[in-house]
Amino acid sequence: MASVYVSDIVNAPADKVWALARDYNGHGEWHPRIAESSIEDDLSADQVGCVRNFTLSDGGHLRERLLSFSDLDRAFTYTILVSPMPITDYVATFRCTPVTERDATFVEWWATFEVDEKDEADIRHAVGRETFAAGIRALADRLE
């Protein structure tokens, strides 16, 4: 099983970062890789079990199911159902934690997945750098 973990500090209060990031379908508003996104079956974007169906800026298509959601923990976990990447058993978590010594937020985003060894370096880069790190920086740019 492969894994990717990315974290960074966003210089904005955790409640403010979470208010933007908590919309499971709102990533198109702040993430540079998302072209368009919708929640299937008219479910709420914070309803466990909802599926977001989205297109990447490069034309790739994904469907992801929300597995857990907590405003208390400022976190959600999801799994990929359909992806252009050669992966299976993908589960990711996004979490915001207050930095108590200043009004900032520790943002973490991590995933585990199965991938062929020949593809692992490319997938780890695509998920870790192009998706997670780019997304956290985009949140920071939007809020700082």
Automatic annotation (TrEMBL):
Superkingdom assignment: Bacteria
Signal peptide: none
Xref: InterPro entries: Polyketide_cyclase/dehydratase, START-like_dom_sf
Protein name in UniProt: Polyketide cyclase / dehydrase and lipid transport
